[in-house]
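Our collaborator T.R. sent over the components below with a one-line note: 'Predict the complex.' Nothing else. No constraints on interfaces, no templates requested, no preferences about which chain binds where. So this is a plain run: every listed entity goes in together, and whatever single assembly comes back becomes the starting point for the next discussion.
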Amino acid sequence: MAVCVAVIAKENYPLYIRSVPTENELKFHYMVHTSLDVVDEKISAMGKALVDQRELYLGLLYPTEDYKVYGYVTNSKVKFVMVVDSSNTALRDNEIRSMFRKLHNSYTDVMCNPFYTPGDRIQSRAFDGMVTSMMIQVC
Amino acid sequence: MEAAASGGCGSGPPLLLSEGEQQCYSELFARCAGAAGGGPGSGPPEAARAAPGASTAASGPVADLFRASQLPAETLHQITELCGAKRVGYFGPTQFYVALKLIAAAQSGLPVRIESIKCELPLPRFMMSKTDAEIRFGNMAELHGTKVQIPYLITEKNTFKRMDDEDKQQETQSPTMSPLASPPSSPPHYQRVPLSHGYSKLRKSTEQMHPAPYEARQPLVQPEGPSLGGPGAKPLRHQASLIRSFSVERELQDNNSSYPDEPWRITEEQREYYVNQFRSLQPDPSSFISGSVAKNFFTKSKLSIPELSYIWELSDADCDGALSLPEFCAAFHLIVARKNGYPLPESLPPTLQPEYLQAAFPKPKWECALFDSYSESVPANQQPRDLNRMEKLSIKDMADFPVPTQDVTGDDKQALKSATDEALPKDMEDSATPKDSNSLKARPRSRSYSSTSIEEAMKRGEDPPTPPPRPQKTHSRASSLDLNKVFQPSVPASKSGLLPPPPALPPRPCPSQSEQASEAELHPQLNRAPSQAAESSPAKKDIPYSQPPSKPIRRKFRPENQATESQEPTTAVGGPASVATVKPHPTVQKQSSKQKKAIQTAIRKNKEANAVLARLNSELQQQLKEVHQERIALENQLEQLRPVTVL
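Returned assembly:
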């Protein structure tokens, strides 16, 4: 369902970004980049919010005519950004949340790997597989 | 074509090959020829050795192939002779085909004769043996795994499609194993896709490996078009499922073939080695190795970090950032496989999964004992004794440990008394380092880290209270300063601390000597006693406040000062007392060494001695009273007599 999934590090550089229609990758990268501003704005607005799932999930960041961008931030300020196709029958919020939850779980599994240093690009095949499963539903 | 080529075989009759045989043999021939590095018909290099102009099968692969047929060597010799290869000196197509036919005949039980090949025969079966593969590529012990090649063989799905078709078509063929020209273990750069294809078909005894796909092998090098319609799972099951997306099929095949030998199977000795390595990192086999410890260990293997990361991902099944024993074995095995050139699988092979490993290799009995002793619930009292057992067992097993543990042994040689003691610090060292990193995962090991002797450990286990309060107790329990003075020099000395009280004990039977033992207790009584005897009281009062060493001296003076009635007890007391004074002096010298342990042993001894002395005390008090009464009586008599004399 997702068209593009990106994991952004705390310092706002991408740890992982992948989009399904590979021809428009640059466009997706740009969209993710612009969404980072929105994410930061929402984070600052939260202030000293309690850390629970609701606050982690940022919801719809901004819609374009073709796509909607959703955001999610972890406790360590690692951001997940997901771009979904607007033409998809509106995905319920819960579904987006569950997708982010799966992303978060896979991300923590990647973190558990001692050979992964935080800040590296994510090259875990399990993570890839999970993202593929999320994205391949589009086709 | 093969039938026609058979005419080239001089002595043999025309070779009639069925279509299936034709395909099979041609593929085999191509493989044997191709294994040398060239393609059929392209003049393999080995052809230079043989008669020029004819494509030949290189003798090496051919020999391996023949051996793979599992016929006795003598039979194979016969076959090679008969087929004419020896005569012509090389394995031409005709010779090769004749040989194959003869092999089929031999496997069917027919005598190896030219006549046998005239009849219809099943296709020859070739079993790839371990030794062949090892000779070939010198790789790991388990080499039969088709699965090994599967992942990196980015084998086109279309090839399987084709094989499916052919498989379905020719199911009536007798089951054959695909002939092997090369073992599976070759790393990517070693293999050509055709070979790997061929080999990948093998090894499922229930499968009907059809040779027909082989002829399609060559053209399959280029990716081709059939759609990925998803061939039925069933036919795939009959073939090795080689494609990534079909890796799931592997489990089904395993069920069919009940885990054939493969590179992902851990042998017993490998397993032992892994377990030993695990123990070197984490002494408790039921606990975990933390991520950082494992990382340091595995980076020693010199594999690249992404590969190690991937191996970790595969083996840490529960994704907890730590490796349990089966996970560790799986990871280690994957690393070993990778280092030997095997590509890493897409997912953890079933034989490496933790449940399988735990089931397949139940922990040996001695390890069970270790588990018992390592159990968290072991109370402190039992733990030292369990430690003893553990240490004794683990010593035998740690004999083969690699260098790191031996170094640790060398480092920890402080005050070691026995082999078991050596094991204790060694293990403590081992457990100390991972203990730090295992703070979350490892079960706490509450072993004492400072024990130097088993006896000490046991005693310490028995007496949980800390030593420091005890000396105070002794001090506080002392009824007088003299007691402290008596026992304090002996307290630090472990053995010598025992001395002063024991000398007190033996003299117990003798009242005079026992008096000396309880001389400290005598003082209060003596203090009271002087009330009856005025003369001796001043002297006696002085004595309690003086030190025991000086006491005998005063005591010795006493006979001079006092009357005879006190002489007997005092001299008797003074004599042995002087002996006792000598003894504390040497103990003072030993005081500096081994204070702590000595203090504790001495404390216990002192307790016992105290009990004994308390008894002595009561007895002696009674005796003292009697003696005093006698003295009083004598003095009265004297006074009665004196006025008589004076007057």
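Summary for T.R.: Chain A has a mean pLDDT of 81.
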